[in-house]
Amino acid sequence: MQSPAPVTSPVTVTVTGAAGQIAYALLFRIAAGEVFGRDTVVNLNLLEIPAATTAAEGVAMELQDAAFPLLGTVTVTDDAAVAFTGADAAFLVGAKPRGKGAERSELLADNGGVFGPQGKAIAANAHSGVRVLVVGNPANTNAAIAAAAGGLPAGSVTAMTRLDHNRALSQVAQRLGTPVAGLHRMTVWGNHSTTQFPDITELVDDTGRPLAEDLGGPEGTWNTDEFIPRVAKRGAEIISVRGSSSAASAASAAVDHMHDWVHGTPEGDWVSVVLPSDGSYGVPEGLMCSFPCRSVDGAWQIVQGLELSEVQRTRLDASVEELADEWSTVQELGLV
Ligand code: NAD
Ligand code: LMR
């Protein structure tokens, strides 16, 4: 995969959906230096639809009022060409969230149309080493649309399963009564949907001791009946309890994803990232799928050499099949 460019100061960062819930948590953490580094000045470009640019101006005013030492310029616009000009990184958040009882894939008809034009605008205006993170749902397929429409290089467009990854770590930490920081090698495979496969098989503690058996094993009832469905349906659980979809935890996962992409993953560990398959683990080439990944020299690499059991294979295949179906819908709707 192509290595995106190293980060130099200042960086230009585009956030779409800037007046929305996730952006309201995300922008302040970027401006505080939590993503690109405590010595890196950040110029923020905020993209919104025309009806929401005034609200985005309000967010820009609050960013200024916070007097972040690392915050450079803040530009609010409804023009994608302006928003992506010179972008070193782009968070594609702007999209409709689902309501109670809906599946994320049902958003494709409404949201899919946003990502083709944005992919083209990124290709035409962004820095050639731009790092793109798609958050708007259905995230895997929206990322595939942006990448295809813009003809963007395979190493530059990703989508977010880091929230699922973090949810999985948190569920295990609560179960074992250990801190999240002592858990390593969690994997979320597949689609950011209910078919996703949060996988404890390779999970280890700080000493490298495998933890799956402490959790009853990969085929144990806690894993199959509680953990996997809990993590896979956590987004819907949040919508049901909170009344709207996850926002601060989604922003936090986006911070984690971009931070690790730029600065690297800890030695011996990995995180979950949606990127175009290179054929690893039998996932068809080009399909935007979540894999265990390491960030090395500023580029994501899929962790190689994991042995998948028949049960793991079946779970991954089910999610891959759903991704292929979503891509067929994209073509039927003429979104690329
Ligand atoms: P929100 O409704 O609060 O904000 C979305 C914003 O996007 C709105 O201000 C809207 O005006 C703007 N927008 C819509 N179309 C746009 C366009 N073409 N260009 C620029 N801006 C545009 O929603 P939210 O809670 O911030 O969620 C945003 C998206 O993120 C949703 O699709 C949600 O499902 C998704 N999400 C994904 C994850 C994940 O883990 N991948 C987690 C949480 C939420
Ligand atoms: C999540 O996982 O919280 C988001 O994808 C929002 C949703 O619709 O579940």
How is this structure best described in words?
The protein is built from ten helices and eleven strands. By secondary structure, the chain is an alpha/beta fold. The strands form three sheets. The protein has a six-stranded parallel β-sheet. Helix 1 (21-31) packs across helix 9 and helix 6 packs antiparallel against helix 7 (221-232). The two termini are 23 Å apart. The mean pLDDT is 96. Residues 97-98, 104, 137, 163, 235-236, 238, 245-246, 250 line the site of (2S)-2-hydroxybutanedioic acid.
Lay out the secondary structure.
Elements (H helix, E strand, L loop, with lengths): L10 E6 L4 H11 L10 E6 L5 H13 L5 E7 L2 H5 L4 E4 L15 H18 L5 E4 L4 H12 L6 E3 L2 H15 L10 E3 L7 E3 L21 H12 L1 H9 L5 H16 L7 E6 L11 E9 L2 E4 L7 H23 L4
Parallel strand pairs: 1-2, 1-4, 2-3, 4-5, 5-6
Antiparallel strand pairs: 7-8, 9-10, 10-11
Helix pairs in contact: 1-9, 4-5, 5-10, 6-7
Nicotinamide-adenine-dinucleotide binds next to helix 1.
